[in-house]
Amino acid sequence: MDLQNLLDDIVGTVQPLLGQGAPADYIPSLAAVDTKQFGISVATANGDVFSSGDADVPFSIQSISKVYALALVLAGDGDRIWKRVFREPSGNPFNSLVQLEHEDGIPRNPFINAGALVVTDRLLSIVGNSPSPVRELLRQESGNSSIDADPEVAASEATHSHRNAALAHFLASYGNLENPVDSVLEAYINQCALEMSCTDLALASRFLANNGLRGNGTALLSPSQTKRINAVMLTCGTYDAAGEFAYRVGLPGKSGVGGGIVAVVPNKCTICVWSPGLGRSGNSLAGVAALDEFTTRTGWSIF
Ligand SMILES: NC(=O)CC[C@H](N)C(=O)O
Fold first, then answer.
1. Of the residues 188, 197, 264, 288, which is catalytic?
2. Strand locations in the chain, DSSP E?
3. What is the domain range of residue 228?
4. Active site residue 63
5. Which HAMAP family match (predicted)?
């Protein structure tokens, strides 16, 4: 398989989709991003990296950060988090409030906003937030020590965070937060505002394809924990479009409203795609199409 040729081809295939869809507009500073951009990177289990298009342009990772927060909580705390958050697809938008009341303050899964707020809360209790543990992990695993939150995106989200604040207060009212609402929101918003390129994210996610092993060969997670994060990514990582994503792409994946998606081919590689135009459920239109093409052409789906 000539991966470089394939990625170059995919950049050509998605051209007609670029500019379609809309960037996230409820975080005003994300709405200004040029939707014609597209990047793709693949990091293989044996350490090679292939990339094409705008693969080295940094973008806002947004909800992709939820995967690394969960990994750190499982690494620090084992299975305890599963008493406070379920592992079922929500079938609802990622920032929905209604389900949380029906289900007595236990979020459906760790990848919708309510679930990620609980995970972030636990991470704050275990390791604190200075420095940000998610940022440190991503710096170490990507080898890029300049990764940081974009203060403008963080400030923009903070001034438009009524929904997430409502979710956090709701969780607190059910006794499902250990830290003050404001500290949890601040940590959550800052990890969402981290800026990384496709290459950074493909490299930083390799532990998900390598049975939990970090770049330096030590274990962040056990093979079983890694398998389970991948399972939750498959069923919940693209919100109410997870069924369609499994059908078209057939890989564990996690999207963010910055237009990035990280996908995992266990024991083989990680893939990161980015294009800011989003479809109805908040997943990158060209990104999903590129991953569809990638698994169709390589046969590297988990099915
Ligand atoms: N789906 C996303 O990427 C959402 C992340 C965004 N920061 C939010 O909380 O609304």
1. 188
2. 39-44, 49-53, 59-60, 148-149, 194-196, 253-255, 260-265, 269-274
3. 3-298
4. yes
5. Glutaminase
